[in-house]
Structure formats: structure tokens, C-alpha cells
Amino acid sequence: MSVTVRVPAKVNVQLAVGAARPDGFHDLANVFLAVGLYDEVTVTAADELRITCEGPDADQVPLDHTNLAARAAQKLAARHGLAPDVHLHITKDIPVAGGMAGGSADAAGALLACDALWDTNTSRAELLDICAELGSDVPFSLVGGAALGTGRGEQLRPLEVGGTFHWVFAVADGGLSTPAVYAEFDRLTEGVEVPEPLASQPLLDALAKGDSTALAAALSNDLQPAALSLRPSLAGTLAAGTAAGALAALVSGSGPTTAFLTRDAPSATKVAEALLASGTCRTARLAASPAPGATVL
Ligand SMILES: C[C@@](CO)(OP(=O)(O)O)[C@H](O)COP(=O)(O)OP(=O)(O)OC[C@H]1O[C@@H](n2ccc(N)nc2=O)[C@H](O)[C@@H]1O
Ligand SMILES: Nc1ncnc2c1ncn2[C@@H]1O[C@H](COP(=O)(O)OP(=O)(O)O)[C@@H](O)[C@H]1O
User: Which part of the chain is the GHMP kinase N-terminal domain (predicted)?
Assistant: First the structure.
């Protein structure tokens, strides 16, 4: 028997970053929006834990026990006194190390799939606890939709979304390491008073109304200067999408994927074509939001 779970990518429509905490993490006001680009995780009973991956970027995904999906299976098994003997197969469509939480999506997917395969009936609250142990972004991958993440991003409050938003994502060549981008944020803000991160009310209102123009005006990402500092070529990508008529452009989370909010689906197609023609990205993907969280198929 096999179980397959589909899990969405995310974009951060607001990422307010506070000063580094004593534990090295940063307090955030992280407004997550799940977008319709998905990985699928299929689990099948096996003699031992094994991982395979298919998709255009599969060669960049670790297939050992450092894979976040494998760590998720191990943690769930340990909670229930089971052996994590499953074959985990990841069908990867989310850009790797792209600031779209692909690894987190696979972890949430593996957790839900193993819980169904093993009939362990783990409560939602317990699943969310395990997610938070695996990574700051993993709880959101489980719940999807839109949510405000506080603490290091793992404490979630669901948010209302009143319409569909149309995005283009420009995928860059190569990834950016999340810890390296936070470290660059620390370097750039050294000696500067970093304000407490707070969610923007105009942004939350724009989400609730489904108002793309208002959301475009309110988008912000405090990690963007750090990502641009590490990857200056992203400025050219942001400019190309804006010139093609995107309502707004920003780096997705820690990057290097860049996100373009557009008026509607036809406008998104036009922006994607212009981005591809500009030669400033490896590929351009269309996706609508919000998208549902991890779902058993
Ligand atoms: C930046 C964001 C925005 O949603 O995601 P990505 O764009 O990378 O996907 C997240 O904060 C990434 O979350 P995630 O990738 O789960 O990070 P974790 O595994 O928890 O932490 C990896 C490292 O990132 C840094 N980190 C992460 C979260 C946080 N609030 N403060 C941090 O300083 C720390 O250096 C930590 O060791
Ligand atoms: N299932 C997974 N899919 C992708 N990357 C993974 C996975 N498990 C572990 N990783 C590691 O996590 C790093 C970050 O990947 P990812 O989650 O895709 O990006 P981001 O943190 O930018 O959203 C990768 O470079 C890879 O080494």
C-alpha cells in the first residue's frame, strides 16, 4: 500500500525580521501565502528507510538521512515506537534552495503520508509540534492557505484571503543558503537598531479583500537587501519583471527565486514570457494563490 500527499510552495508576502536572538534565530512577522506549485511525497512500506526523487532539480536533493522528509518520517516513527521503514519518493516541482520552502513541503508531506500509512492517528497539534522541530517553515507547509508566523515563524495564526492572486516566479540558476542570507542580514544591520517585527495592517487588509493592487503596494521582505547583496544579478530579474507590467516584484523569502504579483492570469503569462526573453532567469513559473496545505491524494 502507498500513500501520496501533495504539498504547496510558499511566498512570503511580508517578511519582517527582528534582531538575532541569543539562540541565533530571528524573531519574525512572517506572512506566508501558499502558492500552487507542488511537490508530491509518496510513501510505501519497505525493508529500510530509502529516498528517491524525480523532477528537473532532483540532482540537487540529498537522498540520505539529511533529507527533511526522511527526518520527518524518523521523528514520527520515534514518537510511536515504530521503525521508519518506508520508501519515500519525492516528485519535486518546487525549486530547490529557492526560498519557496520545498524541503519544508517535503517534510510536512512525509509526516502526513507516514501518519496515514502507519495508521498512527497523530493529532493535528502533535503533527504541528513535530513540524516546528523540523524547521521554522514546516508548520506552514502543513496548513497552507495564508498565515502569520511569529516567533521564528513556527507559531501560526491563519489569515483570511478574499480572492485569487496571480504570481510569476523567476527561478534563478543555483540556490542561496538560508543561514547565509540571515548572516548577511546581520552583517548589513550591524550597529543599526532593528525594530521589532510587526505584521502590516494594510497588507493583512489587502489579503482579506483579495485586492492585488493593494497587496502589491504592501509587499515587503527584510531579507531582500541581504539576498541582493549575495546575488546582485537578482536586481536585473526584478527590473525585467517590473518593466513587463508586474504590479510588484520581490525576492521570495531568502531567495534567489523572485516573485512577481500580476493583475490577472493573462498578465502573468505576459510577464513570464518577458522574464524568459530577458535572459535574467533560468525559468519562469506561473502559480495562483492561496493554495491548500498538505493534502492526502
Ligand atoms: C527565510 C524563510 C522565510 O520563510 O524561508 P526560506 O525563504 O529560506 O524558504 C524562513 O525564515 C526560513 O525557515 P527554514 O528554512 O525552515 O529555517 P530553519 O531550518 O528553521 O533554520 C535554518 C537557519 O535559518 C536561520 N533562521 C531561520 C528562521 C528564523 N526565524 N531565523 C533564522 O535566523 C538560522 O540561521 C537557522 O539556523
Ligand atoms: N526534501 C528536500 N528537498 C529539497 N532540499 C532539501 C530537502 N531536504 C533537505 N534539503 C536541503 O535543504 C536545502 C534548502 O532547500 P529548500 O527547502 O528547497 O530551500 P529554501 O530553504 O530556500 O526554501 C537544500 O539545499 C538541500 O540541501
Answer: 67-145
| pLDDT digit string, tens, across residues 6-55 | 999 999 999 999 999 999 999 999 999 999 999 999 999 999 999 999 99
Contacts of residue 79, defined as CB under 8 A and 6 or more positions apart, other chains included, come to: 120, 122, 126, 130
Top-level class of domain 2-158: alpha beta
Judged by DSSP in three states, 268 sits in helix
Flag whether the ipTM exceeds 0.95. Answer: yes
97 is known to lie in a ligand binding site: yes
Q: Does domain 165-289 sit in CATH 2.40.128.130? A: no
Cβ(136) to ligand 1 under 6 A? yes
- Answer yes or no: are the C-beta atoms of 27 and 18 closer than 8 Å: yes
* CATH 3.30.70.890, the chain: domain bounds: 165-289
Q: pLDDT by residue (tens digit) across 146-187?
A: 999 999 999 999 999 999 999 999 999 999 999 999 999 999
User: Where in the chain do CATH 3.30.230.10 domains reside?
Assistant: 2-158
pTM tops 0.95: yes
